[in-house]
Specification:
Blueprint lengths: L1 H11 L8 E4 L2 E4 L30 H13 L3 H8 L6 H20 L11 H9 L4 H18 L5 H20 L5 H13 L3 H14 L4 H11 L7 H13 L10 H8 L14 H16 L7 H14 L3 H11 L14 H18 L10
Antiparallel strand pairs: 1-2
Helix pairs in contact: 1-16, 2-3, 4-6, 5-6, 6-7, 6-8, 7-8, 8-9, 8-10, 10-11, 10-12, 11-12, 12-13, 13-14, 14-15, 15-16
């Protein structure tokens, strides 16, 4: 199996690798491109690597249409209307707030502005100026500041703290405009991580979210980061938080997948150890996540997040058929963990997809035998 991870490492270093691998006599060997036995993801109707959408984990055509309109016209009103018509406690609203904030932040990075040019993301500034009491605009502005802090400054620096303090104040403003909306407090979870809130202070923010949206998957994922070993908690605290969320998950909730995210956040620095991805802790977490996506309603917007992480673990665990079953549900979009941690999310996703196809065919699978 070592060759698989060598290939993935090459992709992470920026090489363009399209491996076609076959299992023969218990080993994985590389099959030359163009060889009759080469596994081709295109045979399954999968999108070409250059067609993969890195902006979102799954489809949201209304959001894409509005984003295109806002960025083309620099008029915020379509975004304002879309958020106003999106349920305040829904996962969709949180994802759309993130998307609008991210679009404005990336625009600013691409066009910082100058003497003769307005800075990118000007539509968000106009939104806040012309509609200061609009709850949607306030939430997007708070999230925009958070993303700016992480994107432009290093944690612990004065610049980072200044932006995060501004974001904290913006979260307070947004919360006042929409008392029942959990989104301003979900944004503040990232502020809490960046500014290093004490655990009691973090818990106060968390309780406000639980009062408003106790089963909000996006909020739980944001909170998990705080409890991770690399931030302000430990492996044990992160696992305990994830397992408690899974234990109290209502029927059909994706919270049952939380332990898999905790495992991912604490992967060993060197995880090529034989058998790690078949270990009890990983197997149990994968089982919980598979149960979650099978039990969730088909249109749950967080299903794509879980399915993408499942693909990562199922491929590495050599569970090819199960990985393929997840791929057919999300292929085309790669804006989710773990791919977004790479400078080239589409390339890393494409390698895992090619490995899944190769492993599936090496064990007798074909496009005709894959259920849709």
């Amino acid at each position: 199996m070592e060759i698989l991870w060598v290939l993935i490492a090459l992709v992470m270093l920026g090489f363009v690798v399209v491996p076609y691998l076959r299992r023969r006599r218990g080993a994985i060997t590389q099959v030359p491109a163009g060889h009759p036995d080469a596994a081709d993801p295109a045979d399954y109707g999968f999108a070409r690597e250059e067609e993969l959408d890195i902006r979102m984990p799954g489809p949201d055509q209304d959001l894409l249409d509005v984003l295109e309109l806002v960025q083309r016209t620099q008029d915020y009103r379509a975004a304002q209307q879309l958020l106003a018509g999106t349920d305040a406690g829904s996962e969709v609203r949180w994802q759309r707030v993130q998307a609008f904030a991210g679009a404005a932040s990336l625009e600013l990075a691409q066009r910082p502005g100058g003497v003769s040019e307005a800075p990118g993301g000007q539509w968000l500034r106009v939104w806040r100026t012309e509609a200061p009491k609009d709850a949607g605009g306030a939430a997007v502005h708070a999230e925009f500041l958070v993303q700016q802090a992480w994107r432009t400054a290093a944690p612990g620096t004065d610049e980072f703290r200044i932006i995060m303090e501004e974001a904290k104040a913006a979260c307070g403003d947004a919360a006042l405009l929409a008392p029942g909306d959990p989104v301003p407090y979900i944004v503040e979870l990232s502020v809490a991580r960046g500014l290093g809130y004490s655990q009691p202070d973090f818990e106060q923010v968390w309780l406000k979210i639980l009062d408003r949206a106790p089963a909000h998957m996006g909020a739980h994922l944001a909170a998990l980061h705080y409890w991770c070993e690399k931030w302000h908690g430990s492996r044990q605290q992160a696992y305990a938080f994830a397992e408690a969320a899974a234990a109290r998950a209502p029927q059909g909730s994706l919270l049952a997948a939380m332990p898999l995210f905790a495992v991912f956040e604490h992967l060993p620095e060197v995880n090529l150890v034989s058998g790690f991805h078949q270990s009890e802790v990983v197997t149990k977490a994968v089982h919980g996540a598979l149960h979650a996506v099978h039990s969730a309603r088909p249109d749950d917007p967080m299903s794509a997040h879980v399915r993408h992480l499942l693909i990562f673990f199922l491929v590495r665990g050599e569970r090819w058929a199960e990985a393929m079953s997840q791929l057919i549900q999300v292929d085309g979009h790669v804006g989710a963990l773990p791919w977004t941690l790479s400078p080239d999310p589409a390339a890393v996703f494409a390698v895992h997809r090619a490995l899944a196809v190769a492993g599936y065919e090496a064990n007798g699978g074909s496009p005709a035998t894959l259920p849709h």
